[in-house]
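Revision sheet: structure tokens.
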Amino acid sequence: MKTILHKAHSRGFFDHGWLKTRHTFSFADYYDPARVHFGALRVLNDDHVAPDNGFGVHPHSNMEIVTLPLNGELTHGDSMGHSETIESGMIQVMSAGRGVRHSEMNKNPNRPVEFLQIWVIPDRENVEPRYENAVIADLLRKNEINTIVEPYPGNGKIPWIYQQAWFSIGKLEKGTETTYRFHSQESHGTYVFMLSGSAEVAGIELSKRDGLGVSETQETTIRAITDTHILLIEVPAV
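Predicted:
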């Protein structure tokens, strides 16, 4: 088993006033040659957007973009004609494909929004752009690791992306121990990101917003030290 630890405080951080953002991997003005990506996982941004602010219309292409709200509401608009608001307990998936323009705004005048934006390198290029969102709260079972994003073509029940990748979430009570078994027997790795709480993963203690890449194995153990909310992103090596 191989592991790589990224403590929360080691992430790139920028305060733009309306936006406070932390980058696990190199992004925009943050560059670390040792932290460009973890396999097909290219971006993991932890964003805090002030009320009545957001990201205006901007382009993307050939990237799978997953947005996970943690607190507050985020309104998405795009060149495909979608205009929807997502909140905690939901997930948004967009395949940028051959090109799409979109915006992400916090339209609430009083409350900030916190969300993760995650980019995964696709396994094909120049596809027709697509967008979907889903309520994931109904998929979550107590003290289990639950899949919330899967590879194309999916089973029609949860969102999918153009990559052999799986996103999973667990809400684990203190003392719960479980094993995450990789979906693929090929050269996959899993990036573990602590949303809240603390846990021991692959024998390493993690706290809120710590990240841990686990590879060269087919499974990893998770033990909740406190009540824990944890995200796992399984991706192929690229």
